[in-house]
Automatic annotation (TrEMBL), chains A, B:
One of its GO terms (cellular component) is cytosol. Residues 3-61 form the HTH lysR-type domain. Belongs to the LysR transcriptional regulatory family. The lineage of its organism: Bacteria, Pseudomonadati, Pseudomonadota, Alphaproteobacteria, Rhodobacterales. This is Hca operon transcriptional activator. It holds the Pfam family LysR_substrate. SUPFAM superfamilies: Periplasmic binding protein-like II, Winged helix' DNA-binding domain.
Length: 309, 309
DNA sequence: TGCTTATCTCGGAATTTGTGATGTTATTGT
DNA sequence: ACAATAACATCACAAATTCCGAGATAAGCA
């Protein structure tokens, strides 16, 4: 590796100018550095490449021209490598790989994309639904560029922005007696049969909500998908506590559900966006910004239900 | 130029091994050097390229793999540049450019080439007849790889091997009265009308040969090509003094000439081979060797005439 | 002959690269 | 749960390299 790119650059610009001094001026270095770069190239190949004529500058011989051509080619490749690398960071092209543990992500992600991706763009999205741990592992392993996940239970090494804190709300069938109240209490909920969203963090979180209550709601069903929970509720199998809300009250089963805030003061779940905050690719940066803006404006009033509103 | 080839090499071998330690072992450097090389590459693009997991080694993310691929490509190009450069020096391919001030070069150069070039080879010969100064200028300017020239009057900066020292000989028509002598003397020559080879060094050299004689040969003609001199001699216009001898006594005019050594002790002309002796291309080196061997063996007995033989 | 324009040389300064020791973190086996 | 092990991270220092600047040298030019 004695022959460095720097030496090649000095060498080629010197040949280009036919003068060590001029090359040095253009490169903003001392002439002796250029001279020694030429020496280095010649030493590398153990060939005389340049005829140095005092007071007349330098001139390549045939082999020198040949080597210079090859070096310039390599330098071109190098420059385009740098440019491609910069593109990788700066451009809006490429693949954006997102892992999410956010059951209602379909309710907002399309709108986020709309905000920062042109209608026709060179971006390929890779969306992967997973659980909180998989998401964090994937981010740390470089599988995902960004993850949407629940900040409760975040690993120390993950960098993230908080998008929204979502307090729990109560979900009931449209025929439920509590449907006419503006808010419900945990005490009221505790008497209802409950459909529990049985996913990593959620299950213990919902469990914890009852810890200050004298009685706990009986569990009518466990289901590990949000839509199954909603549909079971709509079908009258029980009620549920969830945190984030799709934009429709209709469910897969055909019947609607009704959501009401809970008046008790309860810990919310935090939806967070994890990504490389120190040096993100441009597209990741833009995605993060779009997420933040989405939840700073339209988001909160649509996907969460708060009793303080 | 912050991103050096070395950094790229360390980076790519680290990714290849999935381990900084193993890469360091292979590269025979400290692990910290590899680690910092990775840092350099990441800093250059301001991107996270590698996930470093303690106790488990390293793993590239998508961008890292991308960059690594590009870097490996550049390294490949670099390696082939080095190889091509080495070929330039070592291989028998390419163009061999020879300038010569040696009027009878056609008498021996073909045999020299036979000795070191395979019947079918990738070598292109560029042979250029010129005078002594042009030859030396061309060598210094890199126009020629090697020159055959007369060492008398050599520039100080030219490196050369002496191929043969050629004493002057006497050339006469086949009908000449002196043809039956084994040798002739300068005193005898001084009475003959002379055909003088009128070329840069030769003219003054032949002039000088008479300086110790009481009388000088009358000049019947000046001619600036050897074959014209020989043909004039064959046609009976006079005699000549030359130094090197073709392998035929026939001349273009159709008649033969007869050569005889001169018994006086006279300064010879030195045929020399000038080239880059410090770091020649392989093919130039080989050519030089072939020239030396040619004149060390078959050459002296064929192209020169000595009265000492 | 003297002036100008170049390259060459060389010592020392600045920068970069590499080392080795030490610390931190994660995995693995008991 | 704990110890042993395997990696990577960091840091101060050493080594090597690069670069500068000043003088020396050589060639062209008037």
């Amino acid at each position: 590796m004695a022959l460095t790119l720097k030496a090649m650059e000095y060498f080629t610009t010197a040949l280009h100018h036919g003068s060590i001094v001029k090359a040095a001026a253009e490169l903003n270095i001392a002439a002796s550095a250029v001279s020694s770069a030429i020496d280095q190239v010649e030493a590398e190949f153990d060939l005389t490449l340049v005829i140095r004529q005092r007071a007349r500058g330098i001139q390549p011989n045939a082999a020198g021209r040949d080597v210079a051509r090859k070096c310039e080619h390599l330098l071109d490749e190098y420059r385009s490598l740098l440019i491609e690398g910069a593109e990788l960071k700066k451009s809006h092209k490429g693949t954006l790989r997102i892992g999410y543990y956010a059951p209602i992500a379909p309710a907002f992600l399309p709108q986020v994309f709309e905000a920062f991706l042109p209608n026709t763009s060179d971006v390929t999205l890779e969306l992967e639904e997973c659980n909180n741990d998989e998401a964090q592992d994937g981010l740390l392993a470089g599988t995902y560029d960004a993850i949407l996940f629940v900040a409760e239970g975040v690993r120390p090494s993950i960098e993230y922005d908080t998008l929204v804190t979502a307090p729990p709300y109560f979900l009931m069938p449209s025929s439920h007696p509590l449907k006419d109240q503006r808010t419900v209490t945990m005490a009221q909920i505790a008497t209802e049969p409950l459909i529990v969203l049985n996913r990593p963090i959620a299950a213990s979180y919902y469990e914890g909500l009852f810890q200050s209550e004298t009685r706990k709601a009986p569990v009518a069903a466990y289901a590990n998908s949000t839509e199954m929970v909603r549909s079971l509720v709509a079908a009258g199998r029980g009620c549920a506590i969830l945190n984030m809300l799709p934009l429709t009250s209709e469910t897969y089963v055909g019947a609607p559900v009704i959501a009401r805030p809970i008046s008790d003061s309860l810990p919310p779940l935090t939806l967070a966006l994890g990504y490389d905050r120190m040096r993100p690719r441009r597209i990741v940066q833009d995605f993060a910004k779009a997420c933040q803006e989405h939840f700073a404006t339209v988001g909160p009033t649509r996907c969460i239900i708060s009793h303080e509103e």
